[in-house]
Structures
1.
Amino acid sequence: MEKYSIMTANELADILGLKLENIVLYWPDKILQLKNILIHALDTFNGNKTVVRYWLSTSIAELNDQTPLQIMASTYDFSLIDNVLGRLDYGLPA
């Protein structure tokens, strides 16, 4: 994960497909957690932002058929998403 340890706010917004102002407005207390999830996702998917964007917007059974973005926006429980990424890191089904 070292190679992804530096990520600008603009890069973070780019990965999410959101304007930076919206991230700051709606998630001011969760920006660090969000950044850590995105760093983990980029590491899991070998730095491929396109794959990360797709994964973030794909329903996942382990998340009750919600997308990671829906979980982040509705519950702010980023640990659920981190757990799914961890399973993928070890080649386990998610």
Note: Residues 31-44 form the longest helix (14 residues).
2.
Amino acid sequence: MDSDWPEEDSRVDRLVRGLKDFILGHPERLRALHRWLNAVLRGAAIGFCLRGGLHVVSLAFALARSKRSKQRQTRQQSLWEKLTETGRYTAFLGALAGVFVGVDEGIAAIWGRTRTAAWRAFAAGLACGPTLLLTGSGSHNSLAIYVLLRGLVLLLGYSWILAPQTMPTAYINFLNYHGGKQLYHYQAVRELTTRNAQKLPPAPLKSLADTRHADFCRTRPCSFVHPDRGCNENLIAFLPAAYARALPVYLPVYFLPAILVHRRRLLDSKAGPEILAKVGLGALRSSAFLALYCAFAWRGACAGFQLTDSCTPVSIPATCWTGGLALFAEKKSRRMELALYVLSRAVESFALCLGQWGYVRQELLPGRLDVCMFSLATACILHCYSDAHGQHRDVFRSKYLNVLDFVLGSTGLELGSICHHPSTRDLLAPHIRRISSLARSLERISQDADMEEPDTPRGSFEAGISAFRVHTSMDESR
């Protein structure tokens, strides 16, 4: 039995040596390996920082809003869910970048860079689409359509109130929260709309049975949606609270990418304050958009209820379009992105509504349609990004192009021999040197303190500080 181990070890050693010789013995293969490693690390880092940063900010605001002990278990569950989601998105973006670079380099190595230049990135984009499965078992149709299309506020209002099952749970929770009402308010509006569509006489609503509106018996919901206030008064009172709810959404959305993309310029005395001012203004402006969007949508719905003296499946989508007027609060470069984002949500919801209404059979739709759409989306985007040696890169905005270059490689595109410059090691090297220098300085201070016996604690502290300064200056001079 023991005699078999050396033979097995020798086989493994031969395999390892063979792989090393195959990769390290060829400069082009070594470049491809370095590009793949850099892409995986950077993609994973972006997923961790963006998703994790959003959750950190949301948890901080949640803790600030509530200190009650009975919500401690709920917060712990929420923390675990957010950690899990952060890990999933870290794996998703790392795998997406790794699969794309791996397939891109593999095709180039097998069939040649010149022969495959026109379609290689398209094929690699198709291959990396299934990495979307790493984000969890739930479908991501809206994400896939958003990437593919890049509003239909009417259908959104209908789906939110009357068919919430046709939208992702997370998005429904988002709308419920920023709608500024209690859950029973939305349930009561849905119940009232269904009764009016069936032409039933006014009667108390089951959704309001345990509330102070249990005696409600009308055909329009204004009296329990904003009691003790008129519709216009409610619009004015709604805005400050809506703006406070919107700020935690957009602060991390603006500041985290700025830290990642402009990490060096932020430390500059001239460029740093200018960048922070633009980022802060953008966050404030987008928060105003979301607050106005919700306020105008409610006011439009109230206007429809007043005009028709009813609440029906037609009046809600026909009047919620007023929320789209808030788009003018955003800058022009953001308006198309927001419109396409809302369009992606609406298309997803409309497709599911068609199945619910019986116009399309559910078995005809693929089980994970979002993966198919996402694969096609990434293929189209990455085809424009790097196929034909990058001749179509001018269709991207500079900020998107900078992110793609940072993750997938920024130099050598015109030759088909892509690499990261600077590499991830080069980016981390200055920080590692600083940490090492600090560790050496602290070690020297500790050694000096052991050798000397100061008379007073004050003298020991001052001696330590002076020694730290001397050692730090010596390290910097080196």
Note: The CA atoms of residues 118 and 388 lie 5 Å apart.
